Amino acid sequence: MKLLLFSICLVLSALLAACSPRAPVSQAIDARLTNVTSINIAELTPFAWDTLHIYSPYSARQDICSKLGSAWNSCKTDLPDYIDEGEYLLAFTGPNGIVHHEYFHRRRANFCEKSCALKVPREKAVFAVQTQTPEQKPPRYRLTASAA
């Protein structure tokens, strides 16, 4: 009986850990999408960074790792072969390499219409928010990096 209770607790703990927030920037973006015209990514990050790299679904690990080069030494072991169909990879780099990476789910917003690899400096990481599907509940948005 004790073994059964221990096993149940172990499984529940693993499930809770799997459901814990692991994408704080994505969650912050999602929370701000409604009723705003722009989102400043720098205001949502609790860490220092210089450049935001955004890779669209189906981006190949080989391409991502070659573009980031020495900025992400463990790129080949940290990433899957391809970015999943429903996600964007957000990779933040600083002077000493990668400082944070996470996946942003496409169910609420898109950074590009087709395949893309964006490199956005911190000072330009202000994204215009446009409603793509107002009839959908909740709506889907388009996030476009500022040109300024």
Features:
single chain, 148 residues, 8 strands, four-stranded mixed beta sheet, alpha+beta
The SS-based structural class is alpha+beta
Helix fraction bin: 25-40%
- The unreliable regions are 4-21
Give the oligomer, counting copies of the same chain as homo and different chains as hetero: single chain
Count every beta strand, where a strand is a DSSP E run of 2 or more residues: 8
Number of helices: 4
**Widest sheet, order of strands:** 1-7-8-5
Mean pLDDT, to the nearest integer, reads: 84
Overall outline: globular
Question: What's the order of the H and E elements?
Answer: HHEEHHEEEEEE
Please give the radius of gyration in angstroms.
18 Å
> Into which percentage range does the β-strand content fall?
25-35%
- Span between N and C termini? 64 Å
The biggest beta sheet, please? Answer: 4 strands, mixed
Can you tell me the number of structural domains?
Answer: 1
Give your account of this protein's structure.
It is a single chain. 26% of the residues lie in helices and 29% in strands. It is of the alpha+beta class and 148 residues long. The strands form two sheets. Strands 1-7-8-5 form a four-stranded mixed β-sheet, covered by helices on one side. A four-stranded antiparallel β-sheet has the order 4-3-2-6, with helices on one face. The longest helix has 18 residues, at 2-19. Residues 4-21 have low confidence and may be disordered.
